[in-house]
Design brief:
Largest sheet: 6 strands, mixed
Number of strands: 14
Distance between the termini: 35 Å
Shape: globular
CATH architecture: 4-Layer Sandwich
Strand content: 25-35%
CATH superfamily: Ribonuclease Z/Hydroxyacylglutathione hydrolase-like
């Protein structure tokens, strides 16, 4: 059975998700945006083995804990190929405008649309959803979807940053996410969880 620990981290409270399979204790960390030590402490407390560190996109508020966690766990770091250059370039990941500039580590593996990731008996499909950034992704497993900064509760990701496109983001949401079941639970990059059904009915950007 899948278990999910939600940890808002950093000054703008990006949601880091520690996702694990209960029986095997195998784990995937999605968007360790900051406070790597705090995230690692939670991993140790739950006796988890981290297989993957996955960035839904390359902005600094979602990748700031990569280095600490990779050093601590030796897990494989994954990001979509289009955002891979952002992980090591403070100008591209926008950390040059923050207090701590992020220039490492590089991705171990680059993801593409349709790729599969497995932790224990749980399987995740990579959905490429550009628009917030060129390489933005969502991760879908059954009726659970981690949407990064693509889709929020009653909102969408901003598109005014380099690599952003409003038209592309709307297309990504409509063609990839709005085809999912209404009951699919959305775990976004910021803010509370929602469902595809609620967003289909109430999100003002999707009407």
């Amino acid at each position: 059975m899948m278990k999910i620990i939600v940890m808002p981290v950093g000054p703008i409270e990006a949601n880091c998700y520690v996702v694990f399979e209960e029986e095997t204790r195998e784990c995937m960390v999605i968007d360790p945006g900051d406070e790597g030590k705090k995230i690692h402490t939670e991993i140790q407390k739950n006796n988890l083995n981290v297989k993957y560190i996955v960035n839904t996109h390359g902005h600094g508020d979602h990748i700031g804990g990569n280095f600490y966690l990779k050093e601590a766990t030796k897990a494989e770091l994954l990001v979509h190929e289009d955002d891979a250059p952002m992980l090591t370039d403070p100008a591209k990941n926008l950390s040059s405008y923050m207090s701590a500039k992020i220039d490492k580590p590089a991705a171990d593996r680059m993801l593409q649309d349709g790729d599969s990731l497995e932790i224990g008996n749980e399987k995740f499909t990579v959905l490429h959803t550009p628009g917030h950034s060129r390489g933005g992704i969502c991760l879908l497993s059954g009726q659970v979807c981690f949407t990064g900064d693509t889709l929020f509760q009653y909102s969408i990701g901003r598109t005014d940053l380099p690599g952003g496109s409003y038209d592309q983001l709307i297309e990504s949401i409509m063609t990839k996410l709005m085809k999912l079941d209404d009951e699919t639970i959305v775990f976004p990059g910021h803010g509370p969880q929602t469902t595809i059904g609620k967003e289909r009915a109430r999100n003002p950007y999707l009407s």
